[in-house]
Amino acid sequence: MTVGVAVFGTVLAINGNFSGDGDKSGQVVNSQPTQTPSSGDGLQAASLQFTSQPFGSESRPATADVPTGWKSAQDGTRPKYVDPTGVWQLRFDTRGSKQTPAELVDSRARSIEEKNLKIISRDNGTLVYTYDDQTRGPRMGLSSFLPTADGKRTKVEITVGGRPQDEAGLRAVLQRATDTLQLSGEEDTRPN
Predict the structure, then answer these.
(1) What's the rounded Cα separation, in Å, for the pair 155 and 42?
(2) Which of helix, strand or coil describes residue 91?
(3) Which of 15, 40, 89, 140 is the most exposed place for a label (fewest CB within 10 A)?
(4) Residue 170, exposed/middle/buried by CB under 10 A (0-12, 13-18, 19+)?
(5) ∠ CA 80-62-189 to the nearest 5 degrees?
(6) Between the CA of residue 60 and those of 35, 63, 77, 119, 129, what are the distances in Å?
(7) How does pLDDT run across 18-36, given as a tens digit for each residue?
């Protein structure tokens, strides 16, 4: 985690955006794509470079930093970005929920039906888990549910996925997406 924080701090210093505010739409943080994994290497936080990506709906636009080279596999309020090899992914759900982040963590933990599911942690609105995928082998997921200002509802879910050896890189992707997420429009009050 320290490496991810150091990398994030370095990128902020390079870009000169220490406050976390400002227009990020279309901003390229670095233009080199993330390295393609070899069979045993994990996703390295230090190798990550990011590009700001717009998504959401016309009435509720959003932006966040996504690893450079990861392509959109799904648009709208539930966009999904996948690296060229399909090993890693980042997904957003900006529809919101009337449930608290803690309630959604518990609900997600109960709903995962994967072989050899192991819940690693469920702290601070984030669920970390591993499982075995029939075709891809051991997998790891981190799902973070971000609260509304009052903490009584959830405004967005961010999920990253990869392999267990990718944990440091997955945490860096999740942290960067969380830190750079910008939502526009009214809070979603639809029941979910």
Answers:
(1) 31
(2) strand
(3) 40
(4) buried
(5) 100
(6) 32, 10, 8, 33, 30
(7) 334 444 444 444 444 444 4
Residue 10 DSSP symbol: H
Distance of alpha carbon 42 from alpha carbon 37, whole angstroms: 7
Helical axes 2-15 vs 167-180, angle rounded to 10° = 40
Residues 57, 45: Cα–Cα separation, whole Å: 30
Residue with tokens 């599911």: 117
- Does the predicted model carry a pTM greater than 0.85? no
Q: Are 43 and 7 in contact (CB under 8 A)?
A: no
> Which of the 8 DSSP states describes residue 23?
-
d(Cα 120, Cα 129) in Å, to the nearest integer? 5
Query: Cα torsion at 180, 178, 154, 80 (round to 10°)?
Result: 90
